[in-house]
Design a protein that fits this description.
Number of helices: 12
Structural class: mainly alpha
Shape: flat
Largest sheet: none
Distance between the termini: 66 Å
Helix content: over 70%
Strand content: under 5%
Order of helices and strands: HHHHHHHHHHHH
Length: 292
Amino acid sequence: MTSVATKTTTGTTRADTGATGTTGLVPPRPPVRRPRSRARSVTVRALGPFALLALWWISSATGLLTPDVLASPPQVIDAVGELWGNGQLPDALATSLTRSGIGLVIGLAAGLTLGITTGFTRLGDELLDSSLQTLRTIPFLSLVPLFMVWFGINETAKILLIAVATTFPMYVSTSGGVRNTDRKLVEAMRSFGLGRLAIVRQVVLPGALPSLLAGLRLSMTLSVIALIAAEEINATEGIGYLMSQAQSYARTDILAVCILVYGLLGLTADVLVRGLERILMPWRTAGPGGTE
């Protein structure tokens, strides 16, 4: 009887301990997605630029920024009207966009091809990767004098400088994305008789899409930076030429216009890539918690 009572008491104590151990625990709640309207998202994104614009305006109005240091926003607006009216700004913008676009296309094509080659084939990795990684560490600005010697001061040097600057971000992102592709999936596709090109097109590139878009974003941003450097090579037209002319005459209003144009080009490139991400990868969300 004592043994039975002891067992019963022990069992009751364990049951009570188990019940007590679960008290105080909160049942898990799945994260709730709180959708945000498009208008609100755009408004929040615009707060930073508008704050900088307001600070610039107030500093100019109070005399903290004098025109010889930086022109005021109204003066910059007048300069935009002046440059647009005489046709200088549209012509310069068209020239700069052409340079940047051609160089970007060449760089993206080269980076994508080299990244697939080194990421998908062992022979390509052994032959090319070490050389490309060495070239990647060379600042593209250091190539300006060499390109001037090789290609002169014509458009070829400017376009190739942009192409070189945009090749390596795309190469690194593509190579990493291709290497992270599920090898079991690749082997399964091979067992179904798909060739290498078909596997790259139907399996590898879709799997590496996030890395490809990241490389595209970096390359598009660098194309604007490289454009600024390229247009310092004795340019006779383009946004860089407008900047050099404005510097000669101490026109801080035109200098501010050119800087803002470069900034807007970079922002436009980023917006385009974001839109492409929403189209190609609609399942991705902006925040780590699943809320936009």
